[in-house]
Design brief:
Layout lengths: L1 H24 L10 H10 L4 H10 L9 E2 L2 E2 L1 H13 L7 H5 L2 E3 L10 E4 L8 E7 L2 E6 L3 E6 L3 H4 L2 E7 L1
Antiparallel strand pairs: 1-2, 3-8, 4-5, 4-8, 5-6, 6-7
InterPro entries: Murein_DD/LD_carboxypeptidase, NLP_P60_dom, Papain-like_cys_pep_sf
Protein name: NlpC/P60 family protein
Keywords: Hydrolase, Protease, Signal, Thiol protease
């Protein structure tokens, strides 16, 4: 009877361990749909141009390098220059300040996928540029985070946005 008790105890512990392990494997991990990353992913998935989607995903994470024009490092105006040329077949000046002079101004509410957004972080002159995607998101080469899809509604961007529009 003592041997039977130890076999039952052994069987009980084995079943308990198996149940515990199987319940751990059944957990579902989800991303909250209200996180910044989820919203950026939603903006990317809503792009009309799949070529634009591929271009952005191919460049996402490339580090910022002033004057850079390749995947070893790129600056904001270089990124916009390459994107507009490859995706839309449009040639822009190389510098963001000059790019701002090559657009037809539009209200932020009327922007379309591929329109440009200009910022002035250091005073009155344009010193940063990005490309509008949709739903308040844009892609740019951030000096601290490299090429990234970002939320245009953040106060940090709202305070320094100076111009937006379409290429002439």
């Amino acid at each position: 009877m003592n041997k039977n008790l130890s076999n039952n105890t052994y069987l009980f512990y084995l079943i308990a361990i198996l149940l515990c392990l199987s319940s751990c494997g059944a957990r579902k991990y989800t991303v909250k749909s209200d996180t910044k990353a989820a919203k950026a992913a939603d903006a990317m998935s809503a792009l009309k141009s799949k070529q634009l989607y591929r271009f952005i995903t191919d460049w996402t994470g490339v580090k910022y390098r002033f004057g850079g024009m390749d995947k070893s490092g790129i600056d904001c105006s270089g990124f916009v220059y390459l994107l507009e040329k490859e995706i839309y077949g449009k040639t822009l000046p190389r510098i963001s300040r000059d790019q701002a002079n090559a657009i037809r101004t539009k209200n932020l509410a009327n922007l379309n996928e591929g329109d440009l957004i200009f910022f002035s972080f250091g005073g009155k002159d344009v010193d940063h540029v990005g490309v509008y995607l949709n739903d308040g998101f844009f892609v740019h080469a951030s000096t601290t985070r490299g090429v990234i899809v970002d939320d245009l509604t953040l106060p940090a961007y709202q305070k320094v946005m100076v111009k937006s529009g379409s290429i002439n």
